[in-house]
Specification:
single chain; 239 residues; 4 strands
C-alpha cells in the first residue's frame, strides 16, 4: 500500500495544535524573555503602584480637566473692573466752574439732584430728558453689575464648568452697560438746545449742549466707569 507524501504532510498539518502557531512558538520559539530589565526595575514599579493606591489617583498626573477655566489673570482684571464700577458711584462724575467756585458731582450726587436736573432737562426737549434718564440708569446699574459680578466670581467654585458659566453670564451684563454708554454719547453728540442759557457754567455753550460740552464737564468717575465697563465687556468676550 502506497502512502502519498502529500497526504502525510497534510495530515500532519491538521494535527498541529493551533496554539503553537502564535508568535513565540512558531516564529520565535523558545522561552520568553523577562519583562523587566532587572529586578531593581520591577521593585521600583511595585513601589510606584503601591504609592498610587494609597493616594487613589484615578486620573493621570496632568489633565485638562483640572485646568482652571478662569485663570488668575482673568480673575484679577475682572476684580479690578468690577471694583471700579462700585467705587465709581462715589467718584466725581461731573466737574465744572460756577462763578469763582469749582463744583463737582459724584454719581451719587447726580442721583441726589436728579429732580433738579430733570426739571432743567424738561426745558430742553426730549433729547435732554432721554439723556438724563439713560445716564441715571447707567449710574445706578454700574455698581449693581459690579457687585453681582464679584459675587459670582468669588462664590464657591463647585463644578468648574458651572462656575465658569455663572461668571460668564454675569460678566455679560457689562454689554448692557456699554449699550447705555453708546446711548449717552450718541444723545450728547446729537445735542439739544439750552433755552435757559448756560446757567453760568462757562464749559456749556450759551445756546446748545453738545458732545464737547459733555466731555469737558465729565470727570474721573465718568471716565473710570466707562473704562471698567469696556474692560468687563472685553473679558466677557474671551471667557
Amino acid at each position: 500500500m502506497r502512502v502519498s507524501l502529500v497526504g502525510v504532510l497534510m495530515a500532519s498539518k491538521e494535527k498541529v495544535d493551533p496554539r503553537f502557531r502564535y508568535i513565540g512558538f512558531e516564529v520565535h520559539p523558545g522561552k520568553a524573555k523577562s519583562f523587566w530589565k532587572s529586578e531593581e526595575e520591577r521593585k521600583i514599579y511595585e513601589e510606584k503602584v503601591k504609592g498610587q493606591k494609597e493616594g487613589v489617583q484615578a486620573e493621570r498626573a496632568f489633565s485638562f480637566i483640572h485646568v482652571e477655566m478662569v485663570s488668575t489673570a482673568d480673575k484679577f482684571f475682572l476684580t479690578l473692573g468690577n471694583l471700579i464700577l462700585i467705587v465709581g458711584l462715589f467718584l466725581p462724575w461731573f466737574r465744572f466752574t460756577y462763578g469763582d467756585s469749582a463744583v463737582q458731582f459724584s454719581g451719587l450726587g447726580v442721583l441726589a439732584n436728579l429732580s433738579f436736573v430733570g426739571s432743567l432737562a424738561s426745558w430742553s426737549g426730549i433729547a435732554a430728558q432721554l439723556e438724563v434718564i439713560v445716564l441715571s440708569a447707567l449710574i445706578v446699574l454700574a455698581p449693581l453689575v459690579g457687585i453681582l459680578n464679584l459675587a459670582m466670581l468669588y462664590r464657591g467654585r463647585g463644578a468648574e464648568e458651572k462656575y465658569l458659566r455663572g461668571v460668564k453670564n454675569s460678566s455679560r451684563l457689562s454689554f448692557l452697560l456699554m449699550l447705555l454708554w453708546v446711548f449717552v454719547l450718541v444723545l450728547a453728540a446729537v445735542g439739544f438746545a439750552m433755552p435757559l442759557g448756560n446757567l453760568g457754567i462757562p464749559q456749556i455753550g450759551m445756546e446748545s449742549f453738545n458732545l464737547l460740552a459733555f466731555l469737558t464737564t465729565a470727570s474721573v468717575g465718568f471716565y473710570l466707569t466707562f473704562a471698567a465697563s469696556w474692560l468687563n465687556s472685553t473679558m466677557a468676550l474671551f471667557l
